[in-house]
Amino acid sequence: xxxxxxxxxxxxxxxxxxxxxxxxxxxxxxxxxxxxxxxxxxxxxxxxxxxxxxxxxxxxxxxxxxxxxxxxxxxxxxxxxxxxxxxxxxxxxxxxxxxxxxxxxxxxxxxxxxxxxxxxxxxxxxxxxxxxxxxxxxxxxxxxxxxxxxxxxxxxxxxxxxxxxxxxxxxxxxxxxxxxxxxxxxxxxxxxxxxxxxxxxxxxxxxxxxxxxxxxxxxxxxxxxxxxxxxxxxxxxxxxxxxxxxxxxxxxxxxxxxxxxxxxxxxxxxxxxxxxxxxxxxxxxxxxxxxxxxxxxxxxxxxxxxxxxxxxxxxxxxxxxxxxxxxxxxxxx
Length: 333
Hints:
- There is one protein chain.
- 52% of the residues lie in helices and 15% in strands.
- The strands form two sheets. A six-stranded mixed β-sheet has the order 3-2-1-4-6-5, with helices on both faces.
- It is α/β, with parallel strands linked by helices.
- The chain folds into two domains: 8-223, Rossmann fold; 253-328, 2-Layer Sandwich (Uridine Diphospho-n-acetylenolpyruvylglucosamine Reductase, domain 3), CATH 3.30.465.60.
- The longest helix has 30 residues, at 218-247.
- ATP binds at residues 35-40.
- Keywords: ATP-binding, Cytoplasm, Ligase, Nucleotide-binding, tRNA processing.
- Its EC number is 6.3.4.19.
- Belongs to the tRNA(Ile)-lysidine synthase family.
């Protein structure tokens, strides 16, 4: 009798991990971030299986946010599972979550800071994250609701620097089935059912309603939209980077000077990307630089009526003078 292969869900997750790690050199360390939920637990098991067969080392990081009673014990439980899977190194990262930006954003900031520090210290080539197609669909819907443009609609990238998301093409039901097939008991975070969180409302109410009203496949369609939007946004960003180099007359001590005639030749989507890139290069904090700010600078190019400088975050000013656009933190004399 021919040997029986792994459960289809297990095989799908393992295949996704192998594809995500295919470019790493032999002996490289791949870490996975694991909360103990079905997505990250299935990912950890797949990494433990695939990495040794690819000549790679594999470890696990779990973050204790200290936001719930028993969080330290749960983190130790995840670490214990990791050891049984054969992962090494395994670390519990204990963080203190602030309040800036709301509970979700603060927890995310603390988590990524801890993961990045650990990855640097351990000299890891990559850190895997367990976001699935369902997470991608939720992200696209949230971006659509905020009206924050195509870059937001492009959702999460499969690769962002050191971080990789192998499971973006797989639905959550696959990770749940993979855990069940391997006798892994995921932890259900009560925060995942708390309607105070916007993402939970999208997951529990909005997406199911869309599936009921529009038919199955909404999450898959949203994830597909994210992929296409990301491809378009990446192309526009590359065009804008090249255009910035053509428009820039000088870049001295964060004082950016751009040629207005060159800016006027560009399509709106490209020109505004150039202006955003210039503002950040001049010192504007990217997180505080809104579309409204960029549009105000854009009017200095497209609707010039002799208006005064535009104030931007970080003490920055944008001023039009003699066919040039000047962005600088210090007052422009």
